[in-house]
Give the backbone structure.
Amino acid sequence: MNTAPQAAAAGIPRPTMIEFRDVNKYYGDYHALRGISATIRAGEFFSLLGPSGCGKTTLLRTIAGFEDISSGAVLIDGKDMAGVPANLRPTNMVFQSYAIFPHLTVAQNVGFGLRRKGGTAAEKARRVTEALAMVGLAGYGERAAHALSGGQRQRVALARALILKPKVLLLDEPLSALDKKMREQMQVELIRLQRQVGITFILVTHDQEEALVMSDRIAVMFEGQIVQLADPETLYRRPTSRQVADFIGVMNFLPAKILTEAVGRIAIEVQGLGRAEIDETQAPGPITGGEISVGCRPETLTILYEGQTASDRETPGTVEEVVYYGDMTYYDVRLDGVDSPVRISMRNVFGRPVLDIGTRTRVAWSAGALVLFR
Ligand SMILES: Nc1ncnc2c1ncn2[C@@H]1O[C@H](COP(=O)(O)OP(=O)(O)O)[C@@H](O)[C@H]1O
Ligand SMILES: [Mg+2]
């Protein structure tokens, strides 16, 4: 699933590129950024992910210098950016709307930021050619910008930002105007481009799948706060709150209670599944008994066909809904003794029939795939 560059995990730790120190931002009385503290490493593909209105764009603009902060500090490459205007910061931004000049050619758009910089015309033309090649638009320089497709405009916007060789490229929902096929193609190209140029990319998106596919690390934001910051796999497998679990992918929740807690191990009783023992790393910090809930992803549950046995545990249930996707089938199965059904995703296998609604079945599950929530 995750095709994002993982070099950071393998190699030496990268130095810090961006640091937020307890950043707060008010619009009048409205507290838009609430004590943001985080670091973004050099060369990282970093995403700010969250629902519309949670403060992603505002946070991105504090890096660019388009937005003053009310308190705290934003550092870029170790320098406090207080009082540093946008044009003197080592950042460049690609806007949601692309902001292409329609009356200019592609080359004039891409070279726009160079017009007041030094260098000969020939040198500038060479850089434009280079930037166009980088985004897959070699030979498009003399075209009129207004005649481009959505995907091509997006590439022009990228080339125009990259030609200035920023340390940090800021991307505010750059793919949201594209259709699904083009968006997926541009996702792969953006990853490739980031690897090639090696600069820090910070992407704003409300699309969880996009963030998972593209990022080295993701900061999940709700209501002006970062609620979890982790690599895609950790976010998906070990969300620390129901809110994050719900926002990223599909998560089944089952009521549960804590039975006993020993060192590192927690014994729980889960409605529909029964007793299970889990590791403390499957819980978001200390949990002090009482009513809790247990989460499990649809692909961690498996419907057992006749003659199959569970490698770990199994529990009976009834198929209540079937949604066929061609390569996958989603089943809603009501486990015995549970009020609401769980979603189970099954990869379709040639020769194995899709089950009918009402089928009695057995569901295999594993304690290791459960996540605890307060
Ligand atoms: N210039 C502004 N004046 C007042 N409120 C603003 C301004 N810009 C953004 N906001 C508010 O701040 C919140 C966060 O906005 P924004 O950062 O654009 O969210 P996101 O990019 O996550 O959708 C929203 O509630 C928005 O209405
Ligand atoms: Mg926004």
